[in-house]
């Protein structure tokens, strides 16, 4: 399938997606302002690092580091009735998203967007609430970035980049694993949980961070926010 056929197929698919509107449960209002601020829902453990407790529609967010928070966002949006798409992410952990409550029927996967992935992103903006794109750190021309940002804003579609290819995102989130639970001193034992820190900064956003613990049991991933003190161990490879 060449580029034109790919774009045409995407347009037909997007045309079948129900229009976004006030009835969409993935849209929330900020009660502290007179004007309605539509925001995508986020999981509770990420609320401390996003403005007003949700990611504003039509913005560009850079999320680098560990992929867990990205998949938790996909889960939150689809569980709330929104539509999401993964672009250029053939190794994305869909099982992990499912275990966090994602509705995979509301998730489109475009593993290979071809030689013009930004065109694919632009088409998806017509009907997708949250687009996650791994651009492989490709640098966009400032003019292309401005056009794409304008289209996302007008369509109220949010773009998350899992790399640093976008020069001026509205928000930057950096995730890192800071420890493991259930291990004995020295790093041996059975892994029971993972502690992760997410740092946020961006235009008009005061730098902030949060730490949370993720635990997997019987096909379900649960997460809770932690206090400053962590009772975890560093993982030590067997044989070292």
Structure, explained:
By secondary structure, this protein is of the alpha/beta class. It has five helices and eleven strands. The chain has helices spanning 3-15, 68-79, 94-99, 117-124, 142-155, and strands at 39-40, 55-56, 60-65, 84-87, 107-110, 130-133, 158-161, 171-183, 189-202, 205-217, 220-225. It has a nine-stranded mixed beta sheet with strand order 5-4-6-7-3-8-9-10-11, with helices on both faces. The protein has a two-stranded antiparallel sheet with strand order 1-2. Helix 1 runs parallel beside helix 4 (117-124).
Short recap of the structure:
This protein has 240 residues and is an alpha/beta fold. It has helices at residues 3-15, 68-79, 94-99, 117-124, 142-155, and strands at 39-40, 55-56, 60-65, 84-87, 107-110, 130-133, 158-161, 171-183, 189-202, 205-217, 220-225.
What percentage of residues falls in helices of 4 or more residues? 10-25%
Class from secondary-structure proportions: alpha/beta
Mean pLDDT: 80
Our Rg estimate from Cα atoms comes to: 19 Å
State the end-to-end CA separation: 49 Å
Topology as a string of helices (H) and strands (E): HEEEHEHEHEHEEEEE
Shape: globular
**Numbering strands along the chain, what is their spatial order in the largest sheet?**
5-4-6-7-3-8-9-10-11
Question: Uncertain regions: pLDDT < 50 for 5+ in a row?
Answer: 21-36, 228-240
Number of strands: 11
Sheet of most strands: 9 strands, mixed
Q: Tally the helices: what do you get?
A: 5
Beta-strand portion reads: 25-35%
């Amino acid at each position: 399938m060449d580029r034109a056929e790919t774009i045409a197929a995407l347009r037909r698919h997007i045309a079948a997606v129900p229009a976004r509107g006030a009835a969409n449960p993935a849209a929330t209002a900020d009660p502290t302002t007179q004007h309605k601020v539509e925001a995508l829902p986020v999981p509770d453990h990420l609320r401390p690092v996003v403005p007003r407790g949700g990611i504003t529609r039509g913005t560009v967010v850079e999320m680098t580091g560990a992929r867990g928070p990205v998949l938790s966002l996909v889960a939150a949006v689809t569980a709330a009735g929104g539509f999401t798409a993964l672009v250029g992410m053939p190794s994305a952990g869909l099982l992990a998203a499912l275990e966090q409550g994602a509705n995979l029927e509301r998730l489109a996967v475009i593993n290979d967007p071809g030689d013009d992935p930004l065109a694919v992103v632009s088409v998806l903006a017509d009907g997708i609430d949250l687009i996650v794109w791994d651009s492989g750190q490709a640098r966009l021309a400032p003019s292309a970035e401005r056009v794409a940002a304008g289209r996302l804003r007008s369509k109220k579609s949010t773009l998350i980049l899992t790399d640093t290819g976008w020069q001026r995102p509205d928000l930057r989130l950096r995730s890192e694993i800071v420890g493991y639970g259930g291990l004995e001193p020295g790093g041996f034992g059975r892994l029971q949980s993972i502690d992760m820190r997410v740092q946020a900064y961006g235009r008009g956003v005061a730098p902030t961070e949060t730490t949370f613990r993720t635990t997997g049991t019987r096909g379900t991933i649960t997460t809770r926010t932690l206090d400053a003190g962590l009772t975890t161990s560093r993982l030590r490879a067997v044989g070292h």
